[in-house]
Amino acid sequence: MTVLSEAVLADPVALTRALCDIPSVSWNEAEICDEVEAALKRLGHLTTERVGNTLIARTDLGRGRRVMLAGHLDTVPVNDNFPTRLDGDVLWGLGTSDMKSGTALALWIAATVPEPKFDLSFAFYDCEEIEAEHNGLNKLSKTRPELLAADFAILLEPTYGLVEAGCQGTMRVRVTTSGKRAHSARSWKGENAIHKIAPVLERLNAYEAREVEVDGCTYREGLNAVFIGGGVAGNVIPDEAWVDVNFRFAPDRDEAAAEAHVREVFAGFDVHVSDTAPSCRPGLDRPEAAEFVAAAGGEFRAKLGWTDVARFATLGIPAVNFGPGDPNLAHKQDERVEIPRIRACADALRAYVEEQ
Ligand SMILES: [Zn+2]
Question: The Peptidase M20 dimerisation domain covers which part of the protein (predicted)?
């Protein structure tokens, strides 16, 4: 039995509800992936490939450009909010905002636009709500990057119908100072590593973060201490101290450039990069991206957080976030989505991919 009937596939709201009512907490995406796969195969105009519980579908019409629409299939754990409930213009329940209303739009376009003006690829993937190593899109970008090939990507995460372009990168570094232990009664015999941290904090205090415009989007960077440590005992001059610094960097820097910048700021200190995730260019200078912004009403803003769009960036594909859900409701017990917003996003996407 299929819940994704032809009638359901034809209506983005019914489709949102149907997807939400298939339970798919992370690690349990087999059933929803089966349903989506069966529905796409029935359509006949798409080639599909499944890797685990991640499904890629594509048109192959020989168009000059290819656009990717992507959405994750999983949700966070149930919290007394399953299945969905419809109340007037609002659909309540787990996954309605994050992000089955968005994933439904990708599936709806796949089902109802057999001859798009660009070639389209669709990615429905698993394990987004847990550690990145299990993320279906992340795994595919490493093992089968050719399946994700596109000129531009739209990730249908909740943005409340606004185009949020690119994303900032993030890097964590540890700045360490070293000294020499001694009894604090004879401190002149030692060298205090904690005191040596002072210039690190001074540089952070004096740091003027850039505001950068990339492809018409303004990104505001930040360089901030997030942890600090050091000390041996109450009567010992410490021989080591450290500050963990988080750098949020604009998409005109890649990870190497971000690291070089941080090393320059802390020149003379021992700097170790502990964690890093790439930025993603908004790519709004590209015609397919500009056309999408126009179809979505002409407004856009920079994405300041980090999202899966950066997975596309590592493959050289510019990407934006765009979905009907309200990001403030993601992962909340009272998660919900407004039906008119689903319809508005559906109209924008359809106008974008349909031949005029
Ligand atoms: Zn999400």
Answer: 168-266
